[in-house]
Write a structure and sequence with these properties.
The chain has about 1000 residues and is mostly beta strands. Helices cover about 10% and strands about 50% of the residues. It is globular and about 95 Å long. It starts with a helix and ends with a strand.
């Protein structure tokens, strides 16, 4: 493959070199100063950039009749060649805000004409982070958008939250890639992306109706329209990764000391006569973590003219995991092409093919075992056998788990669409497109025969196989109308779409394979009598039909109006409420376009926006409106006690099920100050989601599972702020920007048989760590507030206790003052996983080909339940905070005496609630672009070398690996059970070449 790509690139390059060419040179200036790095291309091929003195020399094909000059912060210029060999150009500074074209739902608009809250991120802001995930590249760059890494595992995608959590179900936004509506963008290669638009308010998202309640993210990939006769790019980087931080646990001597105290406190003699003999012992985290490699290679070809365009790319990404045994690699191919068959008729396609492989170790179990394992036990004994960690702590040997794990996945995916667009004249145009998202995934997990300890063994080898197939097609048809009459500008849209999704998932397993070599790891190599069908065997099907429309009206570029509406019908709802209608209206006033405005004043630009609208959410799974019957529920009947297969009703129906509806109002302000060098954008929003779909508890005597019902109401309100400064002074250009998101979440209403909804298991005796009720943040942490540590028996006798307590035990606050501590009267809200504020700061400097960029991210006001510190079913290792324990009157008023069980470590209290705030240096990149004269001597157009560091520094109070804890549910987030893959610190070196 690499040889073919190299041959094609060289052939293209040599063919270009021998063709007839003209040489044009000149000087490019702006504001009277030479401009460095201006992009210059011929309309039929060839391209270069200006050097540090603003000079350029460009070879262009003889058929080229003009040059195109583009530069950030300046209006592009197209200059006729007219057989000249010397062309000097002066460029005029432009307002990036006024000229920026924004991709919105089913169309594009100039930023200055928008009435909705839309943020745009360009490709240059996505490629510095060494990751396969577009989401992780976006972290800290958009106000109102929270990006949660979710997991640092190789190949893991990010979690997106736009303007808080407005539902108790799936809160992911809707994703649109080149017009294809999807549920994720994990397959998209960041280097293929041209821009990302984040649609935040109802005016922007209502065009997507039933699925726009959580916001919309539109990804547009690169096209070849502006590439001329041909442009080849090669981008590559390689580097290393290591864990950002380890959890601070005690060494072997300290461990033995604490265990001795626990034994004595619980009435046993200490088991280790001489703790000092153990020394430092085993560092289990060092044993599982490693320095891991990461690499990426991208080759692309683009070409285009007024008739046709094409952009082809191939990418290979490989990431070793910082935990041994975890790896990920992905091969991506993309082709975007368009051709104008007639002056009025255009066809095109966007297609992406993805193949990915991953080694899926049980990283959660390995991390938890490494955290819990006692430091006295060695990784291996003197005979080379794995150390038995179960002797003291009832844990598994983490390295043995890695050794005996063989769990591999392969994913094949094709995502794309094809379209036909026709201009009908008189401002009318039509477009029809058909898209397909096809996925085939398989997983094969083999476990050999092994023995480490009584609780870490497998006496019969086994294999489990999982296959999944999913097909999603989308057919969209739109009619557009554009007309400008004097100071009136109209833009109308009508459309109809239909979408169908089908998935089937099959799994099975067998034991006692005839051998353990890789060639025999198939189901038919196992004992047929042990064959099983896995619990993952199921299927699903849903469909959607939609009708929508939008009108944009602009009067004299001053007054703006957007009205949109969409009607959606979903198979997920019964006939009573199958269709929902979602309208919106947006208003805008470009105050600075008024005749009285002095554009030379301190305030260069002022725009006001207001919008209101409704959007929906249908992410509840399939068939919620109908009763569900499950098979495989067997029972014993008759005098002979024969096992009879059976089926039964497991979930009740709700024929009146209907859409969740989010009503959102937004007020926006856009300011340009000091000749638009300083840009400020602020949005104030309030959104209420009513009819939230939820499986509310019902009485047990009903005998079936609770149906999905519209029973809750959730509020999110807050502020999105963005501030950017950009200035160019001759050869120096720099920028500094920041964004701030403030959000307040509250459950307004929660109906059902009980006013409290408890969830979020913490792994101790069935305890649930979160409570959602009216007036609370969704998923609020719920437990006892600490009031110190009992110092004497007199205090124990005089103050309220929770069960049997002695001096050295935690003292809980009596909230209702009734003299006793009870779960019903004394548990309170201890915090929430939802941050109050999310911040991002970005800066860059360019001078004489040298560039430096910085990116900081942070969040404040969220808390974490350190549940892994609570759950103890043996003599596990301790975090270092246990060294500050109480061991006599007056020794501690915060850390209790050491025990192996009991309320001190088994009852959720504020002792286990930690601050989740952090500030992180997300990325630093230093680069250098070779001067144009040097690149020309190498027969190249551009050469850039760079070094990049990611997650280099973090300031956090939380004692765990990472304070961004996401477990998939609003009721479960922020609970650290010790099973989330840590993030990595990454250093990479890269090279970008264009010719």
């Amino acid at each position: 493959m690499q040889r073919i790509l190299l041959f094609c690139a060289l052939s293209l390059f040599l063919g270009t070199c021998v063709s007839a060419q003209n040489v044009v040179s000149g000087l490019v200036t702006g504001n009277g100063e030479p401009l460095i790095g201006v992009s210059i291309s011929g309309n039929n091929g060839g391209g270069t950039v200006t050097d540090i003195d603003g000079n350029y020399t460009l070879r262009v094909p003889a058929e080229s009749d003009s040059l195109i000059f583009t530069y950030i912060g300046f209006s592009p210029r197209k200059v006729a060649i007219n057989q000249r060999t010397q062309i000097d150009v002066s460029m005029n500074e432009a307002s990036a805000i006024l000229d920026q074209v924004v991709v919105i739902g089913y169309g594009i608009q100039q930023k200055d004409d928008l009435t909705g809250a839309v943020a745009v991120i360009g490709s240059e802001d996505l490629v510095d982070i060494p990751t396969q995930s577009v989401g992780q590249s976006l972290q800290g760059k958009v106000s109102g958008l929270q990006i949660i890494p979710g997991s640092g595992a190789p190949g893991a995608d990010a979690i997106f939250r736009i303007r808080g959590v407005g539902t108790l179900n799936n809160a992911d936004p809707l994703f649109v890639v080149d017009g294809m509506i999807l549920n994720d963008i994990s397959f998209v290669n960041p280097q293929d992306v041209a821009s990302v638009s984040v649609l935040k308010d109802a005016s922007a998202t209502a065009i997507y109706g039933a699925r726009g309640a959580n916001g919309v993210i539109i990804v547009t990939t690169k096209q070849g329209a502006d590439a001329g006769a041909g442009r080849v790019t090669v981008n590559a980087y390689a580097g290393t990764q290591e864990v950002v931080r380890k959890i601070d646990v005690v060494n072997a001597t300290e461990y033995a000391t604490l265990i001795n105290e626990a034994d004595i406190n619980e009435g046993r003699p200490g088991r280790y006569p001489n703790p000092e003999e153990f020394g430092e012992g085993t560092d289990w985290q060092d044993a599982i973590f490693r320095t891991a490699a990461i690499q990426n290679v991208q080759v692309g070809f683009a070409a285009g003219n007024e008739q046709s365009s094409v952009n082809i790319s191939a990418n290979y990404f490989r990431q070793e995991g910082i935990i041994q045994g975890s790896d990920f690699d992905r091969l991506t191919g993309r082709i975007n092409a368009a051709h104008r068959i007639k002056p009025w008729l255009r066809v095109g396609t966007n297609l992406s093919l993805i193949l990915s492989n991953s080694d899926n170790i049980n990283s959660g179990g390995i991390l938890l075992d490494a955290y819990r394992s006692d430091p006295i036990t060695p990784v291996r004994d003197t005979l080379g056998n794995f150390g038995n960690t179960a002797i003291r702590g009832n844990t598994g040997n983490a390295l043995a788990t890695i050794e005996f794990n063989d769990n591999r996945s392969q994913d094949y995916r094709a995502v794309g669409n094809a379209f036909i667009a026709a201009d009908l004249g008189r401002g009318f145009s039509v477009r029809t497109s058909f898209g397909l998202d096809f996925t085939y995934a398989r997983n094969r997990a083999f476990t050999p025969v092994f023995f480490v300890s009584a609780n870490q063994q497998n006496m019969i080898n086994n294999i489990n196989v999982f296959n999944a197939y999913r097909r999603n097609w989308l057919w969209e048809n739109t009619l557009n109308y554009e007309r400008e009459i004097g100071v009136h500008r109209f833009d109308g849209l009508l459309g109809a779409t239909t979408q169908d999704n089908f998935g089937e998932f099959i799994s099975g397993g067998r034991q006692d394979l005839i051998g353990e070599t890789e060639s025999l790891r198939y189901l038919n190599a196992g004992d047929v009598l042990t064959a099983t069908n896995g619990n993952g065997t199921f299927g699903g099907d849903w469909g959607l039909v939609s009708y929508f429309g939008r009108i944009n009206y602009t009067y004299d570029s001053r007054y703006l109006l957007t009205v949109s509406g969409r009607a959606d019908g979903s198979s997920r709802f019964g006939e009573n409420n199958r269709f929902g209608f979602f309208p919106s209206v947006g208003l805008g006033w470009n105050v600075s376009q008024e005749g009285f405005w002095n554009e030379d004043g301190f305030i260069s630009r002022l725009k006001l926006r207001a919008s209101w609208g409704q959007t929906g959410n249908d992410r509840i799974g399939d068939f919620g409106f109908t009763p569900l019957v499950n098979s495989g529920i067997n029972t014993v009947f008759g005098p002979d006690e024969v096992l009879v297969p059976g089926s039964t009703l497991t979930t009740l129906s709700n024929p009146d099920l209907k859409w969740e509806t989010t009503t959102q109002a937004d007020l926006g302000l856009e300011l340009g100050l000091l000749d638009n060098r300083l840009q400020l954008e602020a949005d104030f929003y309030r959104k209420v989601t009513s009819g939230v779909l939820f499986n509310a508890p019902i009485p047990d005597f009903v005998g079936a599972g609770a149906p999905v019902r519209n029973i809750a109401e959730v509020l999110n309100q807050g502020v999105d702020l963005r501030l950017d400064w950009r200035e160019i002074k001759g050869k120096l250009s720099y920028s500094l920007g920041g964004n701030l998101s403030l959000v307040r979440n509250e459950v307004l209403k929660l109906d059902g048989e009980q006013s409290d909804f408890f969830a979020g298991g913490i792994g101790v005796g069935g305890q649930l760590g979160t409570n959602s009720r009216a007036g609370f943040v969704a998923g609020s942490f719920w437990g006892y507030e600490l009031d110190g540590v009992f110092q004497t028996q007199e205090e124990v006798d005089a103050l309220p206790t929770l069960g049997t307590q002695v001096p050295g035990d935690l003292r809980f606050r009596d909230q209702n003052g009734d003299g006793v501590i009870t779960p019903e009267g004394d548990r309170v809200v201890l915090g929430s996983a939802i941050p109050d504020a999310i911040v991002g700061v970005n800066g860059s400097v360019q001078y004489a080909g040298i560039e430096l960029s910085l990116n900081f991210t942070g969040q404040f006001g969220n808390q974490i339940i350190n549940a892994k510190k609570m759950s103890r079913f043996g003599a596990y290792n301790y975090e270092r905070s246990f060294l500050d324990r109480w061991n006599g009157e007056g020794t501690s008023d915060s850390e209790p005496r050491v025990t192996l069980a009991g309320q001190n470590i088994e009852t959720l209290s504020s002792r286990f609630i930690e601050d989740g705030s952090y500030v992180r240096l997300r990325n630093v990149t230093v680069g250098y672009s070779l001067p144009a004269g040097v690149t020309r001597s190498l027969f190249l157009e551009r050469v850039r070398i760079y070094a990049s560091g990611t997650n280099l520094w973090t300031s956090q109070e939380y004692s765990g690996y990472n304070p961004e804890i996401f477990n998939g549910s609003v009721f479960d987030n922020g609970i650290d059970r010790g099973n989330i893959y840590p993030i990595a610190r990454t250093i990479t070196f890269g090279l970008d070449v264009q010719f």
